[in-house]
Amino acid sequence: MSSPGPTVAVCLSYVFLVKFVGPKVMEKKNPFSLRKILMAYNFFQVIFSAWLFYEFCASGWLTGEYSFRCQPIDISANPRTMRMVNVTWWYFFSKFTELVETIFFIMRKKFNQVNALHVFHHGIMPVSAWVATKYYPNGHGTFPGLLNTFVHVIMYSYYFLSAFGPEVQKYLWWKKYLTRLQMIQFVIIMFHALQLLVVDCNFPRIFIWYMGLLALSFYTLFKNFYDKEYKAKQNNKCK
């Protein structure tokens, strides 16, 4: 955590690998199946995300000790504070495990899923989580981690079930609602952060803007994806 250099280096390497190296290597190869690997990976992510969500809740957010309106950063080293710092670090670590998902897309030649939204989202999140872990590992700024881990439990559960193949996929009608859930998540995070612009709270203003604008950028990208992926297709069917 002493420097963002290693995290930034990993993120830049990730972008170069999945946008240039990976597709080039797989260009003349047959796609890998990876069915069992995908099932194991997504099951791990469900359990990991569920544990992170539980820890965010138990460390303050659902114990009554954290205020959703204003929760200053606590620089003390009491056990409750350090528990939140600990789960924030593991949340930061989880953003690296999520990069593997894109590698699987490349190996399966699902290049359409390695779009700008996917690469930007995965490529920026480790850096964003580093900033949180470094400068506000507890308090108001941990709320996005609480929501994000909850969403990821649902999202990776969908991916886990989808990995079983067509016999299960035909029952997974709720895929588009995952994108809606992501969008709702970002709206809540944005308003939760920006409320501190009018609420008197001892929380650095620069990080209020950072969290709010990052959530807004993610919402915009996911909204554009949703309109293109679902609304446009639905309109074409109606013609």
Description:
- This protein has one domain.
- 73% of the residues lie in helices and 0% in strands.
- The chain has helices at residues 5-26, 35-61, 79-97, 100-107, 116-135, 143-162, 166-169, 175-194, 205-238.
- It is globular, with a radius of gyration of 19 Å.
- The chain starts with a helix and ends with a helix.
- 25% of the residues are buried.
- The mean pLDDT is 94.
Shape summary: globular
Helix content percent band = over 70%
Pick out the low-confidence regions: none
Structural class of the secondary structure composition? Answer: mainly alpha
Q: Cα-atom Rg, whole angstroms?
A: 19 Å
Q: Give the terminus-to-terminus CA distance.
A: 54 Å
The overall number of domains is 1
Name the average pLDDT: 94
DSSP strand (E) fraction? under 5%
**Biggest β-sheet description:** none
DSSP summary: helix tally:
9
Number of strands: 0
Order of helices and strands: HHHHHHHHH
List the topology elements.
Layout (H helix, E strand, L loop, with lengths): L4 H22 L8 H27 L17 H19 L2 H8 L8 H20 L7 H20 L3 H4 L5 H20 L10 H34 L1
Concise synopsis of the structure shown:
The protein has 239 residues and is mostly helical. It contains 9 helices and no strands.
Keywords:
fatty acid biosynthesis, globular, ELO_fam, 239 residues
